[in-house]
């Protein structure tokens, strides 16, 4: 927090150095407000940081909008007021006293504190150049889907194993049924053949007994 307050003091000195000019409106007072936090999902490539301000006792001229970025113990001038990288950063006027900073090609390296500044350059009042408390921008990392992939792989593998087991079981049952069905007929034929032989033997024995009986 001490380093952040030091940064704000440095920015105020920068305002005085960049934008100072003599003027008659010494009662100009500016208040700047920013959202404290803003999170961007990993799939987002563009983000808009909002900033609102109010001006009391200031001229009707359009104020200058400045944006800074605070990284660890140093700050970067993004738009003062022109943006140093016009492809990466753009300033938009949303409505009266509402502005935004557009950040393109968003990456995890853009995680930082973004500070909005408003300055009425035609005023010499020390309150005519103010900054907000900053917006902490964070970009979430892409969640690893290894667990989901493993779960899906297990489902697919289980399904394939189930289908394979069902197919094999159906084939085995079909083969066993077919074998038992076809094996019934040879067995039945064998039994019938044996019965015929026994019947023939019995009939022959009866004939022999009948012949002996008739001879006696």
Automatic annotation (TrEMBL):
Organism phylogeny: Eukaryota, Metazoa, Chordata, Craniata, Vertebrata
The organism of origin for this protein: Oreotrochilus melanogaster
Gene that encodes the chain: Igsf6
Descriptive protein name: IGSF6 protein
Keywords per UniProt: Membrane, Signal, Transmembrane, Transmembrane helix
Signal peptide span: 1-24
Gene3D superfamilies: Immunoglobulins
Superkingdom of the organism of origin: Eukaryota
Membrane-crossing residue ranges in chain numbering: 149-174
Segments forming domain Ig-like: 49-132
SUPFAM superfamilies assigned to the protein according to its UniProt record, in alphabetical order: Immunoglobulin
InterPro entries reported in the protein's UniProt record: Ig-like_dom (IPR007110), Ig-like_dom_sf (IPR036179), Ig-like_fold (IPR013783), Ig_V-set (IPR013106), IGSF6 (IPR039089)
Keyword Kinase: no
Keyword Membrane among UniProt keywords: yes
């Amino acid at each position: 927090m001490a380093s952040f307050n030091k940064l704000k003091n440095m920015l105020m000195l920068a305002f005085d150095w960049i934008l100072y000019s003599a003027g008659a409106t010494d009662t100009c007072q500016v208040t700047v407000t920013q959202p404290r936090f803003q999170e961007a999902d990993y799939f987002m490539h563009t983000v808009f940081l909002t900033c609102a301000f109010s001006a009391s006792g200031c001229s009707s001229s359009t104020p200058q909008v400045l944006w800074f970025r605070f990284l660890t113990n140093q700050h970067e001038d993004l738009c003062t007021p022109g943006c140093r990288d016009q492809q990466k950063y753009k300033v938009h006027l949303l409505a009266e006293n509402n502005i935004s900073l557009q950040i393109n090609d968003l990456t995890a390296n853009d995680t930082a504190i973004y500070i909005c500044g408003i300055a009425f350059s035609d005023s010499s009042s020390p309150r005519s150049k103010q900054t907000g408390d900053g917006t902490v921008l964070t970009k979430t990392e892409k969640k690893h889907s290894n667990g989901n992939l493993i779960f899906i792989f297990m489902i697919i593998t289980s399904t394939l194993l189930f289908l394979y087991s069902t197919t094999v079981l159906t084939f085995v049952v079909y083969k066993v049924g077919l074998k038992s069905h076809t094996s019934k007929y040879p067995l039945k034929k064998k039994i019938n053949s044996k019965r015929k032989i026994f019947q023939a033997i019995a009939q022959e024995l009866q004939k022999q007994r009948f012949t002996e009986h008739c001879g006696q």
